[in-house]
Specification:
It contains five helices and three strands; from the N terminus they run αβββαααα. The protein is α+β, with helices and mostly antiparallel strands. The longest helix has 23 residues. The structure holds FE2/S2 (inorganic) cluster.
Length: 147
């Protein structure tokens, strides 16, 4: 049961860029989708307001790996403001499309980047991203949220 992935998705899935961890990252974002259980973690190194390095670790489907891979390429070398403009739509376009059931995987990539920047801003300025909450979230605690 493999969805119809574009060549670009398959290429990033088989040969993902920027996988791993950064020594002393300036920001770390970890998000997850409770429905499929996939988890994505992005780490960034920031120099002079520019994303000097970014690495990811994704425990998830092929689309989650491909979206995180291409998203790291799209924000590396960009300013924080530019990186914040990266939408999951742009990620999907860069991958030459995703099957509809896999769009949420690209949301995870956008969220992971924003979560890493949020963490960076919290650490460097004391305030995180204004008006932003992740659409995907990791339940860190066993008892979960109350809704
Ligand atoms: S199936 Fe959930 S991230 Fe891909």
């Amino acid at each position: 049961m493999s969805p119809n992935y574009s060549e670009k998705v398959m290429e990033h899935f088989k040969n993902p860029r920027n996988v791993g961890e950064i020594d002393n990252p300036d920001g770390v974002g970890k998000v997850g989708n409770p429905q499929c259980g996939d988890i994505m973690e992005m780490q960034i190194k920031v120099k002079d307001n520019v994303i000097a390095d970014v690495k990811f670790r994704t425990f998830g489907c092929a689309a989650a790996i491909a979206t995180s891979s291409i998203a790291t390429e799209m924000i590396k070398g960009k300013t924080i403001e530019e990186a914040l403009k990266l939408t999951n739509k742009a990620v999907v376009e860069a991958l030459e499309g995703l099957p509809p059931v896999k769009i949420h995987c690209s949301v995870l990539a956008e969220d992971a980047i924003k979560a890493a920047i949020d963490d960076y801003l919290r650490k460097s300025t004391g305030t995180g991203l204004q008006g932003w909450t992740p659409r995907s979230d990791v339940e860190e605690e066993e008892h979960g949220h109350q809704h």
